[in-house]
Amino acid sequence: MEETEIVPGTIHLVDLEDRIHARHAGRGQRDVVLVPQPSNDPDDPLNWHRWRKHVFSTCICVYTLMVGIASAAIYSVLVPISQATGLTLDDLNDGTGYMFLMFGWGCLFWQPIAVQYGKRPVYLFSTLATMAIMVWVPYTKTNGQWIGSKLLQGFFGAPIESLCEISVTDVYWCAIFCAIAFVFLFFFMEETNFQRPANNIEVTDNVAFEGKTPNEFSTIEASSGTPPGGFISKGQKSKSYLQKLRVFEKEQLKKPNELKGMILRPLIFLTFPVVVFSGVTLGSHLIYFNILNGTASLILSSPPYSFKSSFVGLSYVSPLIGITLG
């Protein structure tokens, strides 16, 4: 067989000649090699049934929606908020800016924590902390209290990885939304962190695998003396529902602590010009969007428009439709 030099880091994604000794996709996609290779554990997220993946995706959507509503919501009421609290619009927008700052930098803390100890506890704690802040926010009357609440809200809401605005008027409803999200996530969200054993993909002669189906392929793997790597062991049971409710998994707590490296790694990427350019480009677009948000209530509620808060809120219907369709 002719030897060819392969660039380090290269992986095979398509196997047209059945030469790769690894698990392939099914359902008419037999040529596609699964990377990473699923383990033999039924609790490996790569081995989950489709309904289980849909439930987890729903949990992510619930978290994003509820924490987004609580953190964000409606610049259309900035003027009424200013009148009710005595804070100026500049004060309110300053608090929003600090919250945005913590939404970004907070990820340097929460992402490593999620990788090290699990994503489920981070989502639950983020939702619970946001709910507590929403109960506190209506009692903020000074600029210091407002900025403090926004700093904490941005830090604890950073896992949502989105920019959110501020709201005071419906904050108790926001706390209720977070409570609903917490209960939903606690009972339905599973942990997706999973330690898979190293599984080297081997390229072999295509004679033994020619014309074989995925089921026949597992028999070939077992008879060849190589670990099946990706086919669920028949005697291995999935975790019970009560075990899935654990906030922390034992395996996550026993892992070597690599928090320092994970926190510093994104900062090292800042030495790459393409990373800096991409960050500045994305940040510029987000700044422009939030400048429009921060001035919408002031401009549209004043003459000659004199819109009510509800009418100002309707100006967000068009981007909502655009995002949904796009």
Question: What strand line-up does the widest sheet have?
Answer: 1-2
Uncertain stretches of 5 or more adjacent residues? 162-170, 206-210, 212-230
Our measurement of the CA-to-CA distance between the termini, rounded to an integer number of angstroms, reads: 48 Å
Order of helices and strands: EHHHHHHHEHHHHHHH
Number of distinct beta strands = 2
What structural category arises from helix and sheet content? mainly alpha
In percent, how helical is the residue content? 55-70%
Mean pLDDT: 75
How many separate helices?
A: 14
Profile the largest sheet: 2 strands, antiparallel
Query: What fraction of the residues are assigned to beta strands by DSSP?
Result: under 5%
What is the 3D shape? elongated
Nearest-angstrom radius of gyration? 25 Å
Explain what the structure shows.
With 326 residues, the chain is mostly helical. It is built from 14 helices and 2 strands; from the N terminus they run βαααααααβααααααα. It has helices spanning 50-71, 78-85, 89-105, 107-117, 119-136, 143-156, 171-188, 214-223, 241-244, 250-254, 259-269, 273-300, 309-314, 317-325, and strands at 20-21, 202-203. Helix 4 crosses helix 11 (259-269).
